[in-house]
């Protein structure tokens, strides 16, 4: 089941890249570490401008934990500060929904929380690399450190 979810995520990202490139919007892949559970994650995102220097950035992340499904669904927005050399930093916030299903448990758990994020990157070409730190504040707080590529 986990392999199917990851494969579906990758297929979605790579099959829709060209459609978004023409619209001024981006899609991307990200990965990194959920520091509280000390496990890596992979994710996908959509990014589009909604105002001067303001981006809407919904995304999904899957955390690799044995005997458990741990995913987050996030609706984030951030304000970008650009410099003349093609770099940028951003700060933002959003709504995060965490889904946890432990193998063999009777019920899954869903938690809603606040995302606070900061990041930076380079916008010099068709691929935009960036780093991001996100704090998820909810019943189970989590610090997430990631790296991503937007296309």
Order of helix and strand elements from N to C terminus: HEEEEEEEE
- What sort of overall outline do the alpha carbons produce when their principal axes are compared? elongated
As for the CATH topology, it is Porin
Number of domains: 1
Order of strands across the biggest sheet?
A: 1-2-3-4-5-6-7-8
Question: In the CATH hierarchy, what is the class?
Answer: Mainly Beta
CATH architecture title: Beta Barrel
> Count of DSSP E strands?
8
Summarize the amount of helix as a percent range.
Answer: 10-25%
Q: Tell me the structural class.
A: mainly beta
Radius of gyration: 16 Å
Describe what you observe in this structure.
By secondary structure, the chain is mainly beta. The protein has one domain (2-150): Porin, CATH 2.40.160. It is 13% helix and 65% strand. The chain has one helix at 2-21, and strands at residues 26-34, 39-51, 54-65, 68-82, 87-102, 109-122, 128-137, 142-150. It has an 8-stranded antiparallel β-barrel. A hairpin with a 2-residue loop joins strand 2 and strand 3. The longest helix is centred in the N-terminal third of the chain and has 20 residues, at 2-21. It is elongated and about 55 Å long. Mean pLDDT is 88; it is low at 13-22.
List the helices and strands and how they pair.
Blueprint: H1 2-21, E1 26-34, E2 39-51, E3 54-65, E4 68-82, E5 87-102, E6 109-122, E7 128-137, E8 142-150
Antiparallel strand pairs: 1-2, 1-8, 2-3, 3-4, 4-5, 5-6, 6-7, 7-8
Defining traits:
151 residues; mainly beta; Porin; eight-stranded antiparallel barrel; 1 helix
């Amino acid at each position: 089941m986990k392999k199917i979810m990851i494969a579906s995520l990758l297929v979605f990202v790579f099959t829709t890249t060209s459609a978004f490139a023409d619209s001024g919007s981006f899609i991307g892949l990200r990965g990194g570490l959920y520091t509280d559970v000390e496990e890596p994650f992979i994710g996908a995102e959509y990014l589009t401008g909604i105002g001067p220097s303001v981006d809407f950035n919904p995304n999904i992340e899957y955390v690799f934990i044995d005997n458990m499904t741990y995913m987050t669904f996030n609706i984030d927005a951030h304000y970008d500060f650009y410099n003349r050399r093609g770099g940028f930093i951003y700060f933002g916030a959003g709504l995060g929904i965490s889904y946890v299903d432990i193998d063999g448990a009777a019920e899954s758990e869903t938690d809603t929380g606040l995302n606070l994020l900061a990041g930076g990157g380079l916008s010099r070409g068709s691929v935009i690399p960036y780093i991001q730190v996100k704090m998820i504040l909810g019943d189970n707080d989590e610090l997430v450190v990631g790296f991503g590529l937007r296309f």
